[in-house]
Design brief:
Blueprint lengths: L5 E2 L5 H6 L3 E4 L6 E2 L2 E2 L3 H10 L3 E6 L6 H10 L9 E3 H11 L5 E5 L2 H9 L29 E6 L7 H10 L6 E4 L18 H12 L4 E2 L6 H10 L6 E5 L2 H10 L3 E5 L6 H9 L3 H4 L5 E3 L5 H5 L3
Parallel strand pairs: 1-13, 2-5, 2-11, 5-6, 7-8, 8-9, 9-10, 11-12, 12-13
Antiparallel strand pairs: 3-4
The chain binds magnesium ion.
């Protein structure tokens, strides 16, 4: 058993605010769902900014470039500078650059990854559709492996196909070929749809099942993105709050990076999930419990109005 997280309310808001200078917030499920803003989440962040808090946006989504994000933020009236945004595609490129990676990357993913690799001068294969033609056991004629591939980067790929999996796992037969996952999210939070849309974790599992070795995960819950961001902006972990909607990525990332954490209930993780984690005897589940929770991010607007 563990304690349930505290609801952020008028009794604890003052102490809460005094404990952090930096806010890292997830996007999908916290600020917006797909292309729909969640209430007045933009105003909520502006109020925190007006109180002197630095805001950073941290997303596991690897399909867009930082410039795409700037446009999306502007279209929904968020204040966002490109220095304040970190995505798993950007972080993957930075990670490879820090490793002084000099070979070529095979991408099982989308153009967000390709464009971020371009920015750091790392060669990569093309992205886009590649469909199977003919007999899967006669693919040697169709698929020619490139000799200089030194890493396979797997992210969300809506063109996931059999030949792409064949290429990825064939390159990874070489023990020194890096296996990198931008993120391992299971599905995308969406409103008003009966369809469940798989996320990058689905593509990563396809490859991992075959190669039987775990990927280096760049996105949350791994602390790589905090290491990159804190190095760039000199952020102190103990003075940083992470806000997210998904416990097994956002909150665990916060815990892994020694940040304070707050969950909002507008995305993936529900109140019932929190109760399950708290009542579990498994200590790993307790790591999924945030310090605070709020039903929606814009509930903070009322709490901040007297500050
Ligand atoms: Mg999210």
């Amino acid at each position: 058993m563990a304690q349930m997280p505290k609801l952020l309310n008028e009794n604890c808001i003052e102490g809460f605010l005094s404990n952090f200078d930096n806010v890292l917030t997830d996007c999908d499920g916290v600020l917006w769902r797909g292309d729909d803003i969640i209430g007045r989440s933009n105003e909520a962040l502006s109020m925190l900014r007006a109180l002197g808090k630095k805001i950073f946006y941290i997303t596991n989504n690897s399909t867009k470039t930082i410039e795409d994000y700037v446009k999306k933020f502007e279209s929904m009236n968020f204040v966002a500078d490109k220095e304040e945004i970190i995505s798993s595609a950007y972080a993957t490129a930075q990670y490879l650059k820090q490793q002084q990676f000099s070979k070529k990357v095979y991408i099982l993913g989308s153009s967000g990854i390709a464009l971020e690799l371009d920015k750091v001068g790392i060669a990569h294969t093309d992205v886009g559709p590649e469909y199977q033609i003919g007999d899967p056991f006669a693919m040697d004629e169709v698929i020619k492996l490139e000799p200089d591939i030194g890493a396979v980067v797997v992210g969300f790929d809506s063109y996931l196909s059999f030949p792409k999996i064949v290429r990825a796992v064939s390159y990874l037969q070489q023990p020194d070929c890096l296996f990198i996952a931008t993120n391992t999210d299971e599905w995308f939070p969406r409103a008003n749809s009966d369809l469940l849309i798989p996320s990058a974790g689905c593509m990563v599992s396809c490859v991992e099942t075959v190669v039987a070795r775990p990927p280096i995960v760049i996105g949350k819950p791994s602390k790589n993105m905090f290491t990159i961001l804190s190095g760039k902006h000199q952020l102190q972990a103990s003075r940083t709050l992470m806000i997210g909607d998904r416990s097994n990525t956002d909150i665990l990332f916060g815990k892994n990076s020694n940040l304070q954490t707050m969950l909002v209930l507008t995305g993936v993780t529900t109140m019932e999930d929190l109760e399950e984690y708290a009542s579990s005897t498994d200590e790993e589940k307790h790591k999924l419990l945030p310090d605070f929770y709020l039903p929606r991010l814009d509930d903070i607007i009322n709490l901040l109005k007297d500050f």
